[in-house]
Amino acid sequence: MKIAAIQMVSGPDVAANLARARHWLAEAAAQGAQLASLPEYFCLMGLQDRDKLAVAETEGDPSAPIQRALREAAAELGLWLVGGTLPLRTSDPERVRNASCVYAPDGRLAARYDKIHLFRYDNGREAYDEGRVLEAGAAPVMLQAEGLNIGLSVCYDLRFPELYRAMSFQPGRPPCDLFCVPSAFTYTTGQAHWELLLRARAVENQAYIVAPAQGGRHENGRRTWGHTMIVDPWGEVLGCLPEGEGLVLAELDTARLAAVRSQLPALQHRRL
To answer: For the CN hydrolase domain, which residue ranges apply (predicted)?
Structure first.
């Protein structure tokens, strides 16, 4: 399966972001991708955190513009589409879920994962606290697509290896073949840890990683690290886009996956 990771530099205009996302999804499909993933907050990088509340949608609302755009893109382009993240309403009007919705090639919603780990960082010069407007998710989510077992995660989740192990060792299910990590890493933390963490999660779980990111200077003044990547189960970086809009494509080779797991059967040696 050919997979695509799309990098964006999203701004505060939802319609403009949706148009750019559709452009790159069409490009991915034209280049033969069967699965494409958008970055975290692809639909909105607001001027302030609370901007998410104003554009939040109700899951399944047929008139909701962000969900409609994802659903239509998946169906019209014939893609498995990991829709980055979008804000979905909760029972608390002051909180939203940061949700990653996956659409099948027929346009149906195949899975929804709500980001579990909420980012907080303060080095005295820049500060972030997602918990001010986000409500954390509670459970891992996996799905099957084209015979592949896929695990969903978002950005800061990458720092918590137990989430990926939990997805890899579900009773009655084979290990995940691919993990999706749509992200908007800060420049500071991304420069230090992004590639290191992606390759570690790939190696320890012997799985492919598709990691689309926000990458550049945004209208709100924030700079994201970018470096959208696809990593193979041996930890080899198959493609990387440092900054700016674009896409990374790579082949998810099931024979390569099987060979890595056969030659070094680490998943079978797990004891704890």
So the answer is: 1-254
